[in-house]
């Protein structure tokens, strides 16, 4: 780009009175970062350094969003102009932010500032440094951390909430148990699970537990919390659920388990489960209390012959 085509940046504005226009343009063209100036009202590009021209092409007579972004028919929704002026329309300082460019997909750290141009108007000066490599590492780390946190709360065998996750989620709901906001807990375990392991082997027992992890979630509501507490023992927290609704849900799960058949090493294996239900309809309650009452109801179901649901007295 010929030197005389650069906009007349006055060196004194940048506190370099001895530097002439061409010298300043040469310095900006040596930077390994995007530098551009745009009119804050019309968005017309007034200056684009060599780094920008090499990546985005010609800018003369075009608006910043037409050159620097992709598939836009108007100013960017994320435009920082409003952040660069105070309530009196005066420059308010440097605004630093990060974004992913819609044209090339790269991430940039941007330093935006409103400055006075040579003709007296206020324009936006942006210096944008490519941080794509750093951002990719940050995003990969965030995903790894999120995955690790999810795994720490997920039962490895069934894919359900583990004991830790169940208690963390459950405590959020239980204290809401008051008039008009009942909360229920189901506890259940697989009947004669030790016999299944002894007869068919632990691989068969694991196959049954994995099948339960797939069969049961679709039978519950999105707000219900299902978890494996350990071994063949499971629990479900049912927010906003009274005694009758809880019993119906327990029976739906029990029937789903009863009809489950797993193929393992050429043999068809089924199982049943016993359920205990506890409900608090009129008062706040801690999860441990609800689980204790549901566990006692579960024992009653087992004593009555298994493969059935027993409900503790409501409170």
UniProtKB/TrEMBL annotation:
Its cofactor is Mg(2+). It comes from the Bacteria. One of its GO terms (cellular component) is plasma membrane. SUPFAM superfamilies: Nucleotide cyclase, PYP-like sensor domain (PAS domain). It catalyses: 2 GTP = 3',3'-c-di-GMP + 2 diphosphate. InterPro entries: Diguanylate_Cyclase (IPR050469), GGDEF_dom (IPR000160), Nucleotide_cyclase (IPR029787), PAS-like_dom_sf (IPR035965), Rev_trsase/Diguanyl_cyclase (IPR043128). Its EC number is 2.7.7.65. It is an enzyme of class 2 (transferase). GO terms for biological process: cell adhesion involved in single-species biofilm formation; negative regulation of bacterial-type flagellum-dependent cell motility. Pfam families: GGDEF (PF00990). Residues 181-314 form the GGDEF domain. It is found in: Cell inner membrane. CDD domains: GGDEF. One of its GO terms (molecular function) is diguanylate cyclase activity. This is diguanylate cyclase. It comes from Pseudomonas saudiphocaensis. The lineage of its organism: Bacteria, Pseudomonadati, Pseudomonadota, Gammaproteobacteria, Pseudomonadales.
């Amino acid at each position: 780009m010929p030197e005389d085509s650069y906009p007349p940046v006055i060196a004194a504005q940048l506190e370099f009175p001895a530097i002439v226009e061409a010298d300043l343009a040469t310095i900006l063209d040596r930077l390994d970062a995007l530098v551009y100036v745009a009119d804050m009202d019309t968005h017309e590009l007034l200056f684009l350094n060599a780094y920008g021209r090499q990546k985005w092409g010609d800018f003369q007579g075009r608006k910043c969003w037409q050159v620097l972004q992709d598939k836009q028919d108007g100013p960017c929704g994320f435009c920082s102009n409003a952040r660069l002026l105070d309530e009196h329309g005066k420059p308010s300082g440097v605004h630093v932010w990060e974004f992913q460019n819609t044209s090339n997909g790269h991430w940039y750290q941007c330093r935006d500032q409103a400055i006075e141009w040579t003709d007296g108007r206020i324009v936006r000066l942006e210096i944008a440094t490519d941080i794509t490599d750093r951002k990719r590492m940050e995003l990969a780390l965030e995903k790894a951390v999120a995955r690790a946190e999810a795994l720490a709360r997920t039962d490895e065998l069934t894919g359900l909430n583990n004991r830790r996750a169940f208690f963390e989620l459950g405590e959020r709901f239980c204290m809401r148990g008051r008039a008009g906001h009942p909360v229920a807990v189901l506890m259940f375990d697989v009947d004669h699970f030790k016999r299944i392991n002894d007869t068919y082997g632990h691989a068969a027992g694991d196959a049954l537990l994995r099948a339960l992890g797939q069969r049961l979630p679709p039978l519950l509501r999105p707000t219900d919390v299902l978890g494996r507490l350990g071994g063949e023992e499971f629990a479900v927290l049912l927010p906003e659920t009274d005694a009758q609704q809880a019993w119906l849900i327990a029976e739906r799960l029990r029937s789903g388990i009863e009809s489950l058949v797993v193929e393992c090493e050429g043999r068809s294996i089924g199982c049943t489960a016993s359920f205990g239900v506890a409900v608090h309809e009129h008062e706040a309650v801690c999860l441990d209390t609800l689980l204790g009452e549901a566990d006692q109801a579960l024992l009653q179901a087992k004593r009555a012959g298994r493969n059935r649901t027993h409900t503790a007295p409501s409170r």
